[in-house]
């Protein structure tokens, strides 16, 4: 990853990640929380219906992305699948807490998928990183591909994918504990903060790991 173009390295800086995550966090936590309070308090919807109404809000972000880029990112597709899972769980179980957990179950499944990809030697994290560079030029894509060809890079992605997979499973465990110990309104507000906090920590840790490797490589080249 040290051979990324300068513009893309800047896009993955901690400051840029924070600037991108903060609006997403506000949108994912505060807006659904307010919708849930209004739906249950003023409109008198059931908890399940109020949760489904609050869950629809991310669709607008996905639609904006679709109109701007003419395609859906992996995260956008994952968001739509998550909403579909919530709708299905509401129809099957009609239980507000199971609706809350349903999205985290997807995260847990994805964590297991990451760990499984490590076992077969094809880290999913590498695929995700490549999918995030759809707007790159052909030359930049080729440069990126070359940087991923070395055996050392492959081992690093295996390690990072393992860490990410375990962290996603941790997110599922935390969600289950919160869902069954706190009021639903508090879970709606707190869970995105925890989820995005873990994701931000994972990204920051991955970046720090990359910088350490770059520093070691420069020291080796200097000798």
TrEMBL record:
Signal peptide stretch: none
Keywords assigned by UniProt, alphabetized: Membrane, Transmembrane, Transmembrane helix
Residue intervals passing through the bilayer: 21-43, 49-67, 74-93, 105-129, 157-181, 193-213
UniProt-recorded name of the protein: Intracellular septation protein A
């Amino acid at each position: 990853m040290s051979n990324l173009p300068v513009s893309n390295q800047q896009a993955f800086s901690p400051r840029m990640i924070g600037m991108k995550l903060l609006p997403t966090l506000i949108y994912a936590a505060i807006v659904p929380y307010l919708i849930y309070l209004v739906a249950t308090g003023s409109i008198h919807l059931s908890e399940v219906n109020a949760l489904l109404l609050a869950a629809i809000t991310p669709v607008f972000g996905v639609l904006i992305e679709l109109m701007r880029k003419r395609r859906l990112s992996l995260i956008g597709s994952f968001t739509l699948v998550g909403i579909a899972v919530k709708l299905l769980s509401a129809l099957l179980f009609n239980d507000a807490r199971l609706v809350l957990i349903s999205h985290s179950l997807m995260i847990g499944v994805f964590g297991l998928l990451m760990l499984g990809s490590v076992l077969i030697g094809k880290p999913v994290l590498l695929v995700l990183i490549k999918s995030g560079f759809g707007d790159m030029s052909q030359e930049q894509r080729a440069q990126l591909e070359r940087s991923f060809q070395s055996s050392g890079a492959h081992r690093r992605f295996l390690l990072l994918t393992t860490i990410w997979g375990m962290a996603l499973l941790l997110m599922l465990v935390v969600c289950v504990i919160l869902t069954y110990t706190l009021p639903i309104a508090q879970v709606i507000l707190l869970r995105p903060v925890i989820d995005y906090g873990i994701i931000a920590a994972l990204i920051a840790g991955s970046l720090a790991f990359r910088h350490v490797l770059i520093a070691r490589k420069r020291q080796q080249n200097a000798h």
